[in-house]
Fold:
Amino acid sequence: MATKKATKKKATKRAACGSHMKKKATKKATKKVTKKKVTKKKVTKKKVTKKKVTKKRVVRQPNPAFMKPMQPDMVLGEVVGSKPLPRTEITKKLWAYIKKNGLQDTVNKRMINADEKLRPVFGGKWQVNMFEMTKLVANHISEA
Structure:
């Protein structure tokens, strides 16, 4: 008996669906086709606020290797002095000598023009790059 009721329900559903479909088809044919205008939406960027993180200041200590006194040789001693000095002080005194005598090239500030005192320090070159200068000076210092 349950199977008969199920088949009857299916048959009525099919009949109902078929008639319903026909009505929709006729309605669709009578409707006018209208095009929708497409408008672009403006994208707004959200502002992101970053929270400030407070860091504790750590007192920076210099590298002990830079602070170790180094002994300049006779050639470099004519420019910076003959007393043992840390590398940083030797470089500072060398730059002070260069600025005092106007040995920095006017066109290319990275180049250093050698005078009679600096020429032996620079290995006989008349002009040296400032980065090459520190490498050449390292050949003229030894541990005190």
User: Anything to note?
Assistant: The longest strand covers residues 70-72. The two ends are 114 Å apart (CA to CA). The chain is about 45% helix and 10% strand. The mean pLDDT is 77.
